[in-house]
Write a structure and sequence with these properties.
Strand order of the largest sheet: 3-4-5-2-1-8-9
Structural class: alpha+beta
Helix content: 40-55%
Strand content: 5-15%
Largest sheet: 7 strands, mixed
Shape: extended
Length: 678
């Protein structure tokens, strides 16, 4: 349904849509229902151009007939027994309006018509491709009715008889089949082809009625290519039954070819003229005047004959209008040509010999259309003239005509012309984003903010950090809020590491210190068994620069190691002066205070290395060495002094120091395992 609504709105010409709309209004006012039927539905479905419109109503045709004249329709023919009217509408639209009937054939070629439903009407037609209807009524607009599956035959490009006796009942269908095959390029369905050949052999064409003969003769001239259809009918032998004097050999093919060319040029500019009345004298160009007169008498719709005879006079009148001063400008000629009947424009372009007329027609076809390409769509957008504004299309037409006449040659002139149509600039959009309150730091973050001066008063003139720059960029784009990247929860800003100054190692004592440290570590390994990380060899390697601290060994003879621990601070601080990252406070807390107290209370028992030292000479007294090693390691390992200090302290002392417990347990575990395996 939606597909056919689209086809009705896009595949019909503007004039055809107006004609359909007018008939819908008349049918609604007459309490009748109206449908698009026949060849129009076939052409819409097949994708071909719609040549003429066939419409069927369910209701009283006489009521509708009364309103046709007032709506702009002209009746050019009538088939009273079949309840058919043949109409024309402004714009060159041809229509067939009929009432729904149920038809029967008591004798071949003599139908009997009775009022019926739409389905009855469709079942009485010639071929299934023509037995379809589209509703044009409110509530069912665009609904397709196809009781005989004509869509399938259209897809197969086949003509199938509705009735098995179709060629017997109505012999004109033989001629219609040949004409449609020539125009559409379709084939007859297999059984239909057999019946077609049988009808030719049996001579069913002899029952052709006079009215149908005149109708089929006229349809030849309404074809897009009359000569091709004429030759097809001659091949099938049907012209002998229609009008033997009408032959393809008597056609003025040169003039007819010129007519086709001019018709195509006008169609490009939207002038869709029919060639029927113009082509009639060309197709019958070599026939005698008597044969032409006889042919005109046979035509079923005499309105077509009147159109042929009045064509020359109409061309002269229109040529005079086109060459007058009123149509001197290209825009005036354009408007006149589009307001005139397309058939008359085509006839004038083909047959007029006036030089001014031909010159203006050439301008209309070649120069005037180029003005549309010069429409400044970019300037229209800059001036806020968009398609959603009312009257946009009318403004484009005005601009098109001004450009056509050469009145707008520069961009300044175009801008001045468009200025009155430019709407005012819209007000800036209100800022609906509400500023959020500044997040105040809490707890430790508040103290840290006070120390670092979060407001930035102490850092004026200093470069912004990376986090601060990213937060400022995010605030501008609305992706972040204040404090998301520089708030207290984000942690401190990373600082650059200062390079460590290298200290020249001493020549011989360093090796001895390594051995002494290894011995001490081996002796400590039974007590440090629970720990699992950080090998003991690494602290010893880092302690190389602190070798001068060994001078404190002789005074270590005293039983208390406290005195030896105090000078260790001074000895360690002097050689490693550049290492400022390891604060002195941390060293004092871990080395000086806690280990001294515990050793003073229990001098030998708690310090596992000291227990083994008194049994041996002074060389093996290690009590002072752990303290010295602590001083060395604390100073050497600049980034994590606490880890190194706690390796030198006995295990029990580390357990009481809660903050350093986890750090000490990890480095002490791998040392005994590796060294014990060695």
């Amino acid at each position: 349904m939606a597909d056919y609504i689209y086809l009705l709105e896009n595949r019909l010409s503007h004039a055809q849509q107006k004609a359909v709309g007018a008939l819908r209004t008349i049918a609604r006012e007459s309490d009748a229902t109206i449908f698009l039927t026949g060849g129009a539905v076939r052409d819409l479905t097949a994708g071909a151009s719609v040549r003429d419109l066939d419409l069927t109503i369910q209701g009283d045709l006489s009521k509708i007939r009364k309103g046709l004249g007032a709506a702009g329709f002209e009746i050019v023919g009538e088939n009273a027994p079949a309840h058919q009217l043949f109409l024309t509408y402004s714009g060159g639209v041809r229509l067939e309006l009929s009432s729904a009937v149920a038809v029967s054939w008591p004798k071949p070629g003599k139908p009997k018509y009775e009022p019926g439903s739409l389905i009855d009407d469709l079942r009485g037609r010639d071929f299934t491709a023509n037995a379809m209807a589209i509703s044009l009524n409110e509530g069912s607009y665009g609904l397709l009715m196809d009781p005989l599956n004509g869509v399938a035959d259209i897809e197969n490009r086949e003509l199938r008889l509705v009735s098995n006796y179709g060629f017997i009942e109505e012999p004109s269908r033989l001629i219609r089949a040949a004409r449609l095959m020539s125009r559409l390029g379709w084939q007859l369905e297999e059984k239909t082809r057999q019946r077609y050949e049988t009808a030719k052999e049996e001579g069913y064409i002899s029952a052709l009625s006079a009215w149908n003969k005149g109708y089929e003769l006229e349809e030849i001239f309404h074809e897009e290519d009359p000569v091709r259809v004429l030759r097809a009918l001659e091949t099938e032998g049907w012209m002998q039954h229609l009008f033997p004097a009408l032959q393809s050999a008597k056609v003025n093919t040169t003039s007819l070819s010129d007519l086709y060319t001019r018709q195509g040029e006008l169609q490009i500019q939207g002038v869709l003229g029919h060639i029927a009345a113009i082509a009639f004298p060309l197709v019958t160009g070599k026939m005698s005047s008597g044969d032409v007169a006889s042919l005109k008498k046979l035509v079923a719709r005499q309105g077509f004959v009147r159109e042929i005879e009045a064509l020359d006079a109409r061309v002269k009148d229109f040529a005079a209008k086109l060459s007058a001063k009123e149509a001197a400008t290209p825009s005036a000629a354009w408007k006149l040509l589009h307001a005139t009947e397309p058939d008359l424009v085509l006839a004038t372009y083909f047959s007029s010999k006036s030089a001014p007329v031909q010159a203006r027609l050439k301008t209309f076809l070649t120069e005037s259309p180029n003005a549309r390409q010069r429409i400044p769509y970019q300037l229209l957008t800059e001036m806020r003239i968009t398609p959603d504004l009312p009257g946009y299309n009318e403004l484009l037409d005005k601009l098109f005509f001004e450009l056509m006449d050469g009145r707008l040659a520069t961009p300044e002139e175009m801008k001045a012309f468009l200025e009155p149509y430019s709407p005012p600039a819209p007000p800036p959009p209100p800022n609906l984003r509400r500023a959020r309150a500044r997040k105040e730091p809490k707890g430790r973050g508040k103290k840290k903010a006070a120390e670092l001066d979060i407001d930035g008063s102490d850092f004026e003139g200093m470069p912004l950090t990376v986090a601060a720059e990213e937060e400022l960029a995010g605030l501008e784009t609305g992706l972040t809020e204040e404090g998301d990247l520089t708030g207290p929860d984000r942690g401190p800003e990373p600082t650059e590491e200062e390079p460590i100054e290298k200290v020249a190692p001493l020549p011989t004592k360093a090796a001895k210190d390594k051995k002494a440290a290894k011995v001490v570590a081996e002796k400590k390994s039974p007590a440090a068994a629970p720990a699992k990380t950080a090998p003991a060899a690494k602290p010893v390697v880092a302690a190389k620069p602190a070798a001068p601290a060994k001078k404190a060994v002789p005074p270590a003879k005293a039983p208390a190691p406290v005195k030896a621990a105090i000078p260790a601070k001074k000895v360690a601080a002097k050689p490693v002066a550049p290492a400022k990252k390891a604060p002195a406070k941390v060293v004092a807390k871990t080395v000086a205070a806690k280990p001294v107290k515990k050793v003073a209370a229990k001098p030998v028992k708690k310090a596992a290395p000291v227990k083994k030292a008194p049994a041996k000479p002074v060389k093996k007294v290690v009590a002072a060495k752990p303290v010295k090693a602590v001083a060395k390691k604390v100073v050497a390992v600049k980034k994590a002094p606490a880890k190194v200090v706690k390796k030198a302290v006995p295990v029990k002392a580390v357990k009481k120091a809660a903050p350093a417990k986890k750090v000490v347990a990890k480095p002490a575990k791998k040392a005994p395992a590796k060294k014990s395996r060695r």
